[in-house]
Design goal:
With 200 residues, the protein is an all-alpha fold. It has one domain: Fic-like fold (Orthogonal Bundle), CATH 1.10.3290.10. It is 50% helix and 0% strand. It is built from 7 helices and no strands. The protein has helices at residues 30-49, 62-73, 97-113, 119-133, 140-154, 172-185, 190-196. The longest helix has 20 residues, at 30-49. The protein is globular and about 55 Å long. The relative contact order is 0.13. It binds adenosine-5'-triphosphate and magnesium ion (MG). Adenosine-5'-triphosphate binds at residues 9, 11-12, 90, 131, 138-142, 166-167, 178, 181-182.
Length: 200
């Protein structure tokens, strides 16, 4: 049960609390759920970002991308690491998710092998494609930013400090972040690249 009438954001409908793994003996506020998620995510941050992760730890293949979402949200949600079966306002059709994610891992491997982009542009494109696909029921933004940060860390750059409360609609930084994604939707990656390059 949940005692707030305010959804966290557009992509997080209030009735999506089925699959909550927290003890059932109390009512949780959205704030408490978000705190539980943040605690879960902190473990993944420690594992992948405290030192540059090896190719074995972070292989950027299809199975690992799913595993990463499970590692970030698996303490809190049953659907962590599982592809969504429902259509959302953001993201491609759910039946296309597996093939699109597979294609992204192949494109990423190609970009790396052929040095198509520098690491910042690679991270920005990875972030944008991952969140465009929107493989999971929720947590896609946090998962895609984590993916890009792990990529940066593995390739010699420090991760981007996305504000923790980026979810809050009233945060002006969120508008800038969404604007950068929208520009990337139209093929202009400069703003998003600048964010990954720590120069925005
Ligand atoms: N209009 C939009 N166009 C493109 N992408 C969007 C838009 N609105 C939201 N997004 C992306 O989808 C994410 C929200 O999806 P979801 O709720 O699954 O992720 P989250 O991790 O729960 O939230 P957040 O990313 O806000 O922390 C946003 O962070 C952003 O990355
Ligand atoms: Mg959400």
């Amino acid at each position: 049960m949940i005692d707030s009438t305010k959804p966290i954001d557009d992509a997080t409908p209030l009735d999506d609390i089925s699959g909550l793994k927290l003890p059932k003996d109390k009512v949780y506020t959205l704030k408490e759920i978000y705190a539980a998620e943040a605690n879960n995510i902190a473990h993944a941050t420690l594992k992948y970002l405290s030192a540059p992760p090896s190719k074995k730890t972070a292989p950027f293949d299809y199975a690992w991308m799913q595993q990463l979402h499970e590692e970030m949200f698996g303490d809190v949600w049953e659907w962590a690491g599982k592809f969504r079966q429902v259509e959302l306002s953001i993201g491609i059709k759910s039946y296309l998710v597996p093939s699109a994610l597979k294609e992204l891992t192949e494109d990423l491997a190609y970009w790396k092998a052929h040095k198509t982009f520098d690491i910042y542009e690679t991270a920005a494109r990875l972030h944008h494609r991952a969140v465009q696909i929107h493989p999971f029921q929720n947590g896609n933004g946090r998962w895609s930013r984590m993916l890009a940060n792990i990529y940066l860390r593995q390739h010699g750059s420090m991760p981007v400090k996305w504000q923790e409360d980026l979810l809050a609609k009233e945060n002006p930084k969120r508008d800038e972040y969404i604007q950068a994604l929208k520009e990337a939707d139209h093929g202009d990656y400069q703003m998003l690249i600048a964010m990954h390059r720590h120069t925005y």
